[in-house]
Design a protein that fits this description.
Strand content: 15-25%
CATH architecture of the largest domain: 3-Layer(aba) Sandwich
Number of helices: 9
């Protein structure tokens, strides 16, 4: 296969398109002799004649016409590729793929999405809500640009950036309950609404209770924080939720010691290059976290 010089191809394309060496030279900002020499060199490399000259000027040979059609298609594709890349670079196009839990989407991501999507409306955002192990697996296979999870679920094989700390709190509906500040050991006597033992939040709370010698005997065990909040709103008991995800109708139980908190981190695959869109989204994310 002949290794053709792309510059020679561009010069040929300009001459063939304009049917003039002079016009092509002016368009390319090079001299007419340089154009003529380039055409001659290209013909030598191809082993055939591309143009013939007549009293009416310069014209393509039959072989030149066939060659031009292929060159024209290739040049147009290259121009489209360049325009497309510029759109990505200027954030006029692109996709951001994020793995995150539903709760963290609401607490950490929503405000960032509002700002970013207002500034870059043509960027598409793909958000997948799932358990941390599945999100990490997706990150390892290139499904996500990054994932946002609890630090305790993180792995050392990924680049990790600390985003924020989310404290836990106990909440209740004041229409049904009334509490003064409680000694931390008294929370075991509350009608607790907790997620089941498979949840990260419940495991944290269990470890906290064990550390402070608190007997935990929940009245209700449910599958999600949404159910915890709903049941607390209905006055069925005292729910354990993230501080940043507490409905306004609920009040916090005051305790003499702080409850544990989640460290939230952003994970990136060190072996993957980030797109223009995902790089800019990360800038917005970190900027929002710093302000809060």
């Amino acid at each position: 296969m002949i290794d053709l010089d792309l510059n020679l191809i561009k010069i040929f394309y300009a001459v063939a398109k304009e049917n003039s060496i002079t016009k092509a030279a002016n368009m390319l900002y090079i001299s007419q002799p340089a154009v003529s020499q380039s055409i001659k060199k290209l013909e030598q490399e191809l082993g055939g004649v591309l143009f013939y000259r007549s009293n009416k000027g310069i014209n393509l040979t039959e072989e030149g016409k066939a060659f031009f059609e292929y060159v024209k298609t290739s040049i147009e594709l290259l121009e489209k590729a360049q325009d497309n890349f510029i759109n990505f670079r200027n954030l006029e196009s692109g996709v951001v793929n994020i793995g995150i839990s539903t709760i963290l989407t609401k607490i950490v991501l929503v405000d960032v999405l509002k700002k970013f999507c207002f500034d870059y409306p043509k960027i598409k955002i793909n958000i997948v809500n799932d358990a941390s192990p599945k999100l990490i697996d997706g990150l390892s296979h290139g499904v996500f640009d990054f994932v946002i999870i609890n630090k305790s679920d993180s792995l050392n094989t990924y680049n990790e950036t600390h985003l924020c700390d989310l404290p836990l709190c106990l909440v209740y509906n004041s229409q049904f309950f009334s509490f003064d500040e409680l000694n931390i050991k008294e929370i075991g006597d509350l009608p607790l609404i907790l997620q089941n033992n498979y949840s990260h939040t419940r495991k944290m709370f269990n470890d906290f209770a064990l550390k402070h010698d608190i007997q935990i005997n929940p009245k209700y065990e449910v599958a999600s924080q949404e159910l915890v909040k709903f049941m607390a709103l209905e006055g069925l008991g005292v729910g354990l939720v993230f501080d940043g995800d507490m409905p306004k109708e609920l009040k916090k139980v005051k305790t003499d010691k702080e409850l544990p908190y989640n460290q939230i981190v952003l994970l990136e695959n060190s072996n993957s290059l980030q797109s223009f869109a995902s790089t800019q989204f990360k800038v917005y994310l970190l900027s929002k976290i710093k302000k809060t």
